[in-house]
What does this fold into?
Amino acid sequence: MTTKPEMTAADIAKAVAGRKMTARDATEAALARIKQHDGILNSFTDVTADRARGKARAIDADVAAGKEVGPLAGVPFAVKNLFDVAGLPTRAGSKINRDLAPVKRDATLIERLEAAGAVLVGALNMGEYAYDFTGENVHDGPSRNPHDTTRMTGGSSGGSGSAVGGGLVPIALGSDTNGSIRVPSSFCGIFGLKPTYGRLSRARSFPFVASLDHLGPFARSVTDLALAYDAMQGPDADDAACTKRDLEPTLPLIANPVSDLRIAVAGGHFQKNVFPEAVEAVSRVAKALGATKVVDVPEASRARAAAYVITTTEGASLHLDRLRKRPNDFDPAVRDRLIAGAMVPALLVDRAQKFRRWYRAQLAEIFKSVDVLIAPATPCTAPKLGQVMFNLDGVELPVRANIGIHTQPISFIGLPVVAVPVPLEPLPIGVQIIAAPWREAVALRVAYALEKMGVAAAPAPRGF
Amino acid sequence: MAEPLDDYIDAVSKALALPVEEGWRPAVRANLEVSLRLARLVDEFALPDEAEPAPIFTA
It folds into this structure.
């Protein structure tokens, strides 16, 4: 038995544990796919083949010895290159960080996935320092969309979207500060989970905006997403924001019916500035779920503005010394945004943080009468690589600044979201399934129902 | 003709010892205009004096 791109993580783990396939076979198949296709997709920046083969051999030895293997036994995965991978400098999409010493220890989430039997096969391309919605990178070249390689993957976790959407690996990890998991999920036609802020440890990953950074998984099925998420939960003293809540496994809950859930479409801001394909995707999801109610989310546009202000200033603070010492080694577009961020008066940031708490209370009120909100993940399907403007209702708008307008007001207050892919023609587009804090299981349950109904699905890659 | 934000950019650049080369200035200015326009949206929203910021320090 050999693996095929359409084999899910759950299929692989079951086959490995059941001795129908070896972890070594699963690993070699992933490495072969990377070798065959990544010249086009450009999703990987590092392939850790020796390490992967060593790990796979160890799993096969455990299986042969009759030892218990984890729920992800033999499943190949890869991580955005802002995760620490022992033996590599953590480049975070930059030129500057390549000069850092190789790190000695993996990020917590890599350790947890490997403890569950998964096999790390490499690190993935991303927008510089995660300040990006396109998946383009001036140093490493753009990651390419697996459904049309002339188009963007979305960012900043572009390589994660490309590698999973392209079927190179069944699971990848990324980060999401303003939409960087949900945007590539939308453009690349895959499932992505941005958990509640603080739910998954960020220890030993390169930060961007401490008060907005989240990490999470990508997959081609909801079961795989839940498998990966469950394996990564748990407190971690190495991340000050990581919750001490008990583990809340989601996999046993995702197949529960959704008929008792109160599901509404997010109105106002979330119904503006959208192309017809985003309207169609939300409409299909709402219809399938029987969601007829529209709930206005008050001041969501202002929430997006506040997220922008906090991002640019905290990002500038993080990079201030590098901006002084090595400004010419940045992507010029990132550098100029960060310098501008350094010049925003502090009191405006304080006001943004106060507004954030007010806005959080408004959403808490909404979630008293609603379990799930539905909203577009992106206003459009994947734009062309290098595209600067798009025309929306006769108005020319900058692409880069507008890709995340529907994701930012949600991550701003740390709500859990599953981005589900709606396989429209010719390109897929994502829809956000948004739940109240700590209710990842509810969002995954709705995503699973949509998958079972055939409304959400990761289309087979056909761009290469 | 000097742009309205140029004096401000020069002053903050000097105060923070943060270099802004002439070639970067138009993009820095454009980005700062966007940041300040969005910050103004937040600034305009009236909040009570007792409003607490989102991150609360715990000793």
User: Anything to note?
Assistant: Residues 89 and 101 of chain A are 6 Å apart (CA to CA). Residues 9-304+343-452 of chain A form a domain with the Amidase signature (AS) enzymes fold (CATH 3.90.1300.10).
